[in-house]
Amino acid sequence: MAKPTTRGRGSATPARRTMTAAARAAAKRAERSPATAVAERTERGPAVKAPPAGRTVVIEPPDGWDDPPEPSPEDFAEDTPQETDVRHSRRGVWAALLSVLLVASLVAVAVLATHYRDGARADQARAEALAAARKAAPVVLSYDYRHLDRDFAAARAHITGKFRDEYQKTTQTVVGPTAKKYDGVVKATVAAPTDGGVPAASVVSASADGAVVLLFVNQVTTSTQVTGSRMDLNRVRMTMTRTSEGWKVSAVDAL
Fold first, then answer.
1. Which UniProt keywords apply (predicted)?
2. Distance CA 90, CA 93 (A)
C-alpha cells in the first residue's frame, strides 16, 4: 500500500506562498478600525490635487504693479510713400547743409592760412628791403669826378627796372659832365645817431615782393662852385623791388 505523502510547511509551492501572503495582508486591513484609517490619512496630510492639464493658472500681480501700455496699431503701421519722401528730403537737406558748412570751413582755413603766409612773407620782406635800402643809398647817391665810371657802375648794380635806364641816362648827360666841369664830389651817408645807433630808416609799406623805405640821408658836397664843403640833410624815399638777384632800387624820390 502506498504511503501518503506528507508535505511540510516549508515545502509549499511559490504560487501558494504568494496567495497565502496576500490573504494575510487582506486580513490585516480588514482588522483595522475606521478611526485608525482616519488617523493615518491625517498624518500624511491632505491630498493635493494637481491642476487639470490644459488649464491656465492666474497669478495676481503684486501691489503697485503697472501694466505696460499696449502697442497701438500705429506702432506697427508702415510709413506711407509721402512720409518716406519727406524723410528722404530732410536727409538731403541736412546732407547739403553739412556740405556747405564743410566747404565754408575749408575756405576759411585756406584764407587764414593765406593771410598768415602773406603776413609772414611781408615781415620778412620788410627786414630784407630795409637792409638793402640802407646799403644801396650811399652808393646810388654818391659820386666823385675822379672816377665817375666806376661810381656809376657800382650804383647801377643796386638798381633795377626802368629806373636803371633813367639813372644811366641822367648820369651820362647831366651829372657826369657837371661833376667833371666843377670837380664835383658828393658823399652820401644814411643819418645815424652820434652814439652809433641804428641809421635813420624805416619801412613805409611792404608786401612779399615790394617795399617803400624812407631814409634820412646826409650829403656832403665839394666843388669849385662851393667854398669849403656843404652838407645837405635830405629825406629820400626809395622803392625796393625783389628780383632774382635780391632786393634792388626801382625808384628814388627826394622829399
1. Membrane, Transmembrane, Transmembrane helix
2. 5
Characterise 161 by phi-psi region: left (phi > 0), alpha (psi -120 to 50), beta (else): left
Q: Where are the domains of the chain?
A: 113-254
> What is the radius of gyration, based on Cα positions, of the chain?
62
The confidence score (pLDDT) of residue 8 equals 46
Q: Which of 227, 3, 238 is nearest to 138 (CA)?
A: 238
pLDDT tens digits for 223-247?
999 888 999 999 999 999 999 999 9
From CA 143, how far away is CA 63, in angstroms rounded? 114
Evaluate if pTM is beyond 0.70: no
For residue range 114-130, list pLDDT tens digits in order.
Answer: 665 666 777 899 999 99
**pLDDT at residue 75 greater than cutoff 70:** no
Contact 254, 235 (CB under 8 A): yes
CATH superfamily for 113-254 is VirB8 protein (3.10.450.230)
Query: Cell match 615790394: residue?
Result: 210
